[in-house]
Structure formats: C-alpha cells, structure tokens
Amino acid sequence: KNQSPVNILNKKSVGTTSLPGFDVRYRDVPLKIINNGNSIQVNYPLGSYIELNNKRFHLLHFNFRTPSEHQLDGFNYPMEMQVTHKDSEGNLVIIAIVFIEGKGNLALHDILRKLPKDVGKEHLHEKIIINPSRFFPAEKKFYKYTGSLTTPPCSEGVYWVVFKRTMEASASQIARMHSLLGDNNRPVQKIHGRTILKSWPDRSTVEERYEFN
Known about the structure:
The chain is mainly β and 213 residues long. The protein has one domain: Alpha carbonic anhydrase (Carbonic Anhydrase II, Roll). Helix content is 8%, strand content 40%. The protein has helices spanning 106-112, 171-181; strands at residues 7-8, 14-15, 22-25, 29-35, 40-43, 49-52, 55-65, 71-72, 75-76, 79-86, 92-101, 122-130, 142-148, 156-163, 167-169, 197-198. Strands 2, 3, 4, 5, 6, 7, 10, 11, 12, 13, 14, 15 and 16 form a 13-stranded mixed beta sheet that branches. Strands 1-8-9 form a three-stranded mixed beta sheet, with no helix packed on it. Strand 4 and strand 5 form a beta hairpin. The protein is globular.
C-alpha cells in the first residue's frame, strides 16, 4: 500500500537536480470557505493551476490539518496546509506546507476571521481576497513521493509535494483552527519501500527553477 501521510527522513531521501519543478499560476479570488466536517476547506474557481511535467493541474481547493499529517525527520508540526490540484485525466497533485508556532500569519488571519461553524454550507466573502501562494515559503526546496488521499477512500496514485521549509503561524491562530476541527490528521503510514525524492542535491546548492506569478 502506498498510503499517506508519511514521515519524511531527509537522510534517506534521494537528492537530485533533475526533479521537475513546477510553475504556479494562481489568481487572486474572493474567499469561498466551507466546514466539511473533516477540515476547513477553501474552494477555488477554475482558472488557477500549476504546470508540472508539461501538464496543467487545476487548483481545486486547499484545507488545513491540526496537527500536521506529514512528519519531517520524525517531528509532528502543529498544523499543515494541503493544496489540491487535478489534471484533465483525473491525476492529483497535492502541495503540503507545514507550520511551526511563531509570528502571526497575515494570509491565515483573513481566513480565521471567517471560519464557519456550521457544517456543509459554503460561505462566500467577496471582500476577502485570497491566494494560496501567499502561504508558500520563499525557499522552494521540496520533497516528492507518490501516496494517497488522507481521507476516505484514501485513493492511491497521488503525487505529493511537501515543502522542506516551514511557515509560521501564531499560537493563537493555530489554537483557533484546532478549536474548530480538533485533531483531524491521519496517522503516519508505512513507507513500504517507496523512494522519497528531494529537489536539491545532497551536498550542493542549485539555482531554483520556479516562477511565481
């Protein structure tokens, strides 16, 4: 079984300079948010996407897990954001960002102001403009592996991109998200012989190959 999430061990990950980078093409849009009973999810209209391996993966939504689902070198972080994309053939790419406790996060602030308590109803807030790339770290090193969805039916064949660099959110911001969701993370799953790649060589630095618009 190639399930997610996993514990990513840096020393056991394979460094490479040939791992395809990805171009991010996200639009600024009004906040459309829903409490789906399992996570706080922000839905996105058509028109935003990433380009990976000469394919276009459309941004569907992003959501939050408290605490994190992925571990980096055995460390469980207080929160994780997952950004889900799908191409025309139904293939999924999920970008994950883990958060440490630190300074307040301005991008998260706007979302926390409008957290819906009622389950299953989508709320549109025209005056709050969002873009998930504002949550992405400036340093674009990432790990890549093939896994699964972390909620039922836990379908496999998902291309996961997990940023190496953490982002910050304040203790009160993390507590606010957790107070609404509780622990909504799936436990770490076994690797089962999978190779985790990383986008940089083990002993040198390469020029970043990303273009954010």
